[in-house]
Here is the input.
Amino acid sequence: MRMRNRIVSSFAGYASLALAGALLVSAPAALAAEPVALDITDATGVKLSGDPERGAVVFKQCAACHSLKQGENKVGPSLFGVIGRKAGTVEGFNYSKVNKESGIDWTEQVMFEYLEKPAKTMPGTKMAFAGLKKPEDRTAVIAYIQQNGGAAQ
Ligand code: HEC
Here is the structure.
């Protein structure tokens, strides 16, 4: 990667950084191709699981703004230990009022619903991300997050 990409704050710059980051962290998940059981129930009462390999690819979109490393805030807060965490509690991150005061706990179920269309679930959030329409993309990315630091306490 050329140095220029590191400083250009264009979408292309973010995208190539995200790509490089996701390729680096996706190696362990790629070895474990087994579906990951999730604590998510769909509308028909079926328990869902997610494909972490697919999730590694989906997470490239998140990685433009989020790291799974502890304490590493980017445009968005670090997602280390996010599963089960109370919303708006990463130290040093300047949240919007709606996120901070939402009273949400980021269970896998809540994340599954939120990620479909964040601006609809949490009007006024400063997370500028359209969302993941496909349920399989949401379960995949949650499985990936769970396996790569998101479930750490
Ligand atoms: C364009 C940047 C951007 C992208 C892309 C993005 N986010 Fe975010 N995200 C943010 C910002 C900014 C916040 C803080 C929102 C607020 O304060 O209102 C946030 C907040 C969150 C939170 C709440 C964290 C907390 O501590 O309360 C979760 C969970 C989350 N994002 C998950 C994701 C996932 C998973 C993806 C990919 C599918 C993603 N985000 C994509 C910018 C982004």
Remarks:
- The two ends are 34 Å apart (CA to CA).
- The helical segments are 4-7, 11-25, 27-31, 52-63, 97-100, 108-114, 118-121, 135-150.
- The chain has eight helices and two strands.
- Residues 135-150 form the longest helix (16 residues).
